[in-house]
Amino acid sequence: MISKRYWLTMLTYVLMHLSGFIIIPSLTFILNLNPLDALVYSQLFAFLLATIISLYLLRTDISNELTRSHIHFGQIISWTIIGIFLAYIAQFITSSIEMYIFQIEPGSENTAQIMKIIDNAPIFLVIPAIFAPILEELIFRKIIFGSLYKRMNFVWAAVLSSLAFGVIHLDLVHLLIYTGMGLVFSYLYVKTKTIIVPILVHMGMNSITVMAQLLIDVEELERIQEELSSIIHLIGG
Length: 237
Known about the structure:
The protein has a domain of 165 residues. It is built from eleven helices and no strands.
C-alpha cells in the first residue's frame, strides 16, 4: 500500500503542473506581465515550491536510504559519473533504434520548447537542471518504481515506471528514448540504494544537454549528427 506521504508528493507534482492555468493569467492580469515572463515566473515558483514540499515530505525516506546504503560521498560521485555515461549510451541506442528501425526523426519537441524559453529567459535553466530532475526522480523512481519493485521483478517495474516517465513529458513519439533513460535511472537506484544518485545523474545529463545546445551552433550540431549517421550506416553495412 502506498503511504500517505507518497500520495501527497504525487498530488503536489500534479498540482504543480496544473498551477500554470491559474498563476499565468493572474500574473498577466495583475502585474501586467507579458505571456513569456508570466510563464517563466509561474513555473519557477511552482517548481521551487513543489521541490521544497516534496523533499520535506520524503526527508525521512531519503535519510534512511543513505544510512542503509552505507554509500559515501566518493561513491556517490563515481556512480554519478558512470550513470551519466550509461544514460547517454542508452539515449544513443534508443535514438538510433527510433531513427533506423521506426524512421522517427531525431529531436524532441519538448526539449526544443524548453530551449526557446531559456534563450529568452536564461533563469529558466534552473528548472530542467535542478528542480525537474529532483521531482521526477522522487516521483517516477522512488515512489512509482519503488512501489512496483516490491510487487514485481526489476524489468517490469522499471519498464512501467519508465513508460509513465515518458508519457508525462507529452512526447510520445520519443517514448522509447524516455523509457531507455528510465531503465538506467532505475538501475542506478537499485544498485546504489539511494535516490540521490539518480537525481544527480538526471541533473548532470539535463545540464550537459541544455548547455551543449546553448553553446554549439545548430548547423554544426546537424553536421555532427550527419557524420554519426554516416558512421552508423558504414558499421551496419
